[in-house]
Design brief:
It comes from Mycobacterium xenopi 4042. By secondary structure, the protein is mainly alpha-helical. It has one domain: Orthogonal Bundle (Rna Polymerase Sigma Factor, Chain: A), CATH 1.10.1740. 58% of the residues lie in helices and 0% in strands. The chain has 4 helices and no strands. The longest helix is centred in the C-terminal third of the chain and has 21 residues. The radius of gyration is 15 Å and the shape is globular. The chain starts with 16 loop residues before the first helix and ends in a 6-residue tail after the last helix. 29% of the residues are buried.
Length: 100
């Protein structure tokens, strides 16, 4: 019988830290999503490698402790997203694309 299993996060760069941080609450889901969008856009534009997407998100989340509090307003969430996008852009500029 054919079955489907989830791949899990062990052995992947970041070791599942992303899902754990997203579940942590506060504005961290918004931070994760914004960082993911910026990293994916950089990959699609050829500015970073595929594995660098995970590193970029991990770098952003590592610095995101200030956004762990529950947002009081929508502006708090928007501020978290703006911060995460800027932080992800900085992380992307520090990535070095491998030469072929």
């Amino acid at each position: 019988m054919l079955g489907v299993r989830t791949a899990g996060h062990r052995g992947l760069p970041g070791g599942g830290a992303g899902p754990a941080r997203r579940r942590a609450g506060g504005c961290l889901t918004a931070v994760y999503n914004a960082a993911n969008e910026e990293a994916a856009a950089a990959f699609l534009a050829g500015r970073i490698s595929f594995p660098a997407i995970v590193r970029t998100i991990a770098d952003v989340l590592a610095d995101a402790d200030e956004w762990a509090a529950e947002p009081a307003t929508v502006d708090d969430v928007l501020d978290a997203q703006r911060w995460a996008r800027e932080r992800a852009r900085r992380a992307v500029t520090q990535e070095v694309m491998p030469t072929r």
